[in-house]
Amino acid sequence: MSSLRKKTDHELIQDFQDGDLYALETLILRHKEKMYTSILFLVKDKYLAEDIFQDVLIKIIEALVQIVMIVKRHRARMRIQAKRTERATQP
């Protein structure tokens, strides 16, 4: 996991898209303090900030999962299209 810490956020998202759950964990750990502190600054209530932080985190994870599903469908379509094109060009 230490090698994940050296990766950029973009690289971690790509790794997560490829099924690496540790990449998602690394992203969360990297940004959770800053996110929580920002929320706390806005609402000025520790318990409310924790609730909002959890809600935001869930929304982020749900969005990333949706992105992963879209990317996987797109990759599958591209593979199918490539096979069709390959077959169509063969004598």
Strand content: under 5%
SSE run: HHHH
Report the uncertain regions.
Answer: none
Total helices: the number is: 4
- CATH fold node name: Rna Polymerase Sigma Factor, Chain: A
Total individual domains: 1
Mean pLDDT: 91
* Shape summary: elongated
Instruction: Report the radius of gyration as a whole number of Å.
Output: 19 Å
What top-tier CATH class fits best? Answer: Mainly Alpha
Percent helix: over 70%
Q: Label the structural class.
A: mainly alpha
Main beta sheet: none
CATH architecture: Orthogonal Bundle
Number of strands: 0
Distance between the ends:
49 Å
Structure notes:
This protein has about 90 residues and is mostly helical. The chain has one domain (about 1-90): Orthogonal Bundle (Rna Polymerase Sigma Factor, Chain: A). About 90% of the residues lie in helices and about 0% in strands. It is built from four helices and no strands. It has helices at about 1-5, 10-15, 20-45, 45-90. α2 (about 10-15) crosses α3 (about 20-45) and α3 (about 20-45) runs antiparallel to α4. The protein is elongated. The N and C termini lie far apart (about 50 Å). The mean pLDDT is about 90.
